Amino acid sequence: MTETNPxxxxxxxxxxxxxxxxxxxxxxxxxxxxxxAVLAVNFVGIFCTxxxxxxxxxxxxxxxAQSMNVPIRVLPMGMDFMRxxxxxxxGRGRGxxxxxxxxxxxxxxxxxxxxxxxxxxxxxxxxxxxxxxxxHRQALDLVERESGIAGRILRPxxxxxxxxxxxxxxxxxxxxxxxxxxxxxxxxxxxxxxxxKVEVFGPPAGGCLLTDPAIARRVKDLFAHCPDxxxxxxxxxxxxxxxxxxxxxxxxxxRSEQENDRLQRLAGARPLAEIAGRPGPLALVRGVLREGDxxxxxxxxxxxxKHGDRASEKVCWLIEDREEYFTAHxxxxxxxxxxxxx
Length: 342
Ligand code: SF4
Fold this sequence. Notes:
Helix content: 25-40%
Order of helices and strands: EHEHEHHEHEHHHHEEHEEHEEH
Oligomer: single chain
Strand order of the largest sheet: 6-7-9-8-10-11
Strand content: 15-25%
Radius of gyration: 24 Å
Bound molecules: iron/sulfur cluster
CATH topology of the largest domain: Rossmann fold
Low-confidence stretches: 51-56
CATH class of the largest domain: Alpha Beta
Number of strands: 11
Shape: elongated
CATH architecture of the largest domain: 3-Layer(aba) Sandwich
Mean pLDDT: 92
CATH superfamily of the largest domain: HUPs
């Protein structure tokens, strides 16, 4: 095995996609063990739980990179990614998850970094046959073709099941020390983690909120009704209770103090509403109000709070720093809630 780039007499460098999960952590260790210099790249999107983000907003990928003493870049997935979710070229999984397009998106970005960092290749922790949509053979081939760096994507966990890549052919990486892991079981990876002393990694069941049917419904609703949506709208689709009152109006209610705080942060210039004088949900109002909508929103708020026996309650309507009050009579019925629910 050649451990240095003979042309430049320094270690060859790889960009490694690091989710924070076990497979990508192992991929880094396998590269380091072959004397490859590593720059880890972690994509952070509002839907992504691949990185097993920790409570309090920490990023496990950073911990993994630090535990192996490799530098890391954290890259956001913003509106450019949302456009892909909205119009995927290669279909979606069981929710609105465009896994193939998403992998292409990440690899194209990694390819740019590869050029900027004078790296020789890109590494992923993918395992053949592990994920139904994006890790079967044709999907890997398709992603590779569309990434713009065909031949320079090394998947060390399953490389021996695939054609040799350029870095293997160039002698930068020893194919004999790469692996042939296939399928969904994690036993081999867990045994390998022990053997290679990879101790910091996220739980194996990483994933993405876009695969969640409830969130998929809300994201589709967003695409259908809010052509001017932004990242705040997209984030709001990931939590809370969602009701569409009509084509032009949706309300989102927080289910906890934490969700209320989050809605407040995402509201911007959009109205918020809450029952005055007692704790309960906050509602973020998104869209155009028609006659009677404010009262309907008041009745929805009452249906999700402890209204006691009161026939009516005051509702506080907040737009930025301005407060208005009105009275909501009655409570939204189960039928109404079921009809409006997204
Ligand atoms: S589950 Fe699919 S869409 Fe979601 S982040 Fe992972 S690859 Fe991308």
